[in-house]
């Protein structure tokens, strides 16, 4: 019985740390938006804006690592490409969310809350895809 192993493109330690670090930041922003929606205390919206800024930094750097891995990969289709596209969608919608949170007071709602939900789910899916073994040579 012969088994062939396919080369994998998994994130390195720094890449994985940046990738996994964006999830709690986006989740914290979502929870802050929920607290703002329930309490009308403007500080929750400010806190969400800062958490989103940190998450954008973390996911943006993870996106750069993912692009470098995709460029080096022998096969540029399939899951590695899906992972990069998920990260890109997360970052772009996170940026839109940051712009939404730059508005004044209650103008953030409800779009900020909806965007926070979408971006948090996207960040979780991108992290799941990034931390699993990404095949670069054929699908098994």
Structure in a nutshell:
The protein has 140 residues and is mostly helical.
Give an overview in words.
There is one protein chain. With 140 residues, the chain is mainly α. It has one domain. It contains four helices and no strands. It has helices at residues 13-39, 42-72, 79-101, 111-131. Helix 1 runs antiparallel to helix 4 and helix 2 (42-72) packs antiparallel against helix 3 (79-101). The radius of gyration is 17 Å and the shape is elongated. 38% of the residues are buried.
- End-to-end Cα distance, whole Å, is 17 Å
Helix-strand category = mainly alpha
Count of separate DSSP helical elements: 4
**Sheet of most strands:** none
Overall residue-averaged pLDDT value: 87
Protein name: DUF2231 domain-containing protein
Transmembrane segments: 12-35, 47-68, 80-99, 105-131
Domain DUF2231: 13-131
InterPro entries: DUF2231_TM, UCP029509
Descriptive terms for the model:
140 residues; mainly alpha; 4 helices; 73% helix
């Amino acid at each position: 019985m012969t088994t062939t192993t396919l080369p994998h493109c998994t994130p390195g330690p720094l890449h994985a740390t940046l990738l996994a670090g964006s999830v709690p930041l986006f989740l914290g922003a979502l929870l802050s938006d929920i607290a703002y929606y329930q309490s009308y205390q403007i500080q929750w919206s400010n806190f969400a804006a800062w958490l989103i800024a940190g998450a954008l930094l973390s996911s943006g750097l993870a996106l750069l690592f993912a692009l470098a891995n995709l460029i080096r990969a022998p096969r540029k289709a399939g899951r590695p490409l899906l992972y990069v596209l998920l990260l890109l969608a997360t970052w772009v919608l996170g940026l839109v969310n940051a712009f939404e949170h730059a508005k004044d007071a209650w103008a953030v709602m409800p779009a900020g809350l909806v965007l926070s939900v979408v971006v948090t789910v996207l960040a979780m899916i991108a992290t799941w895809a990034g931390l699993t073994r990404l095949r670069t040579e054929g699908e098994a």
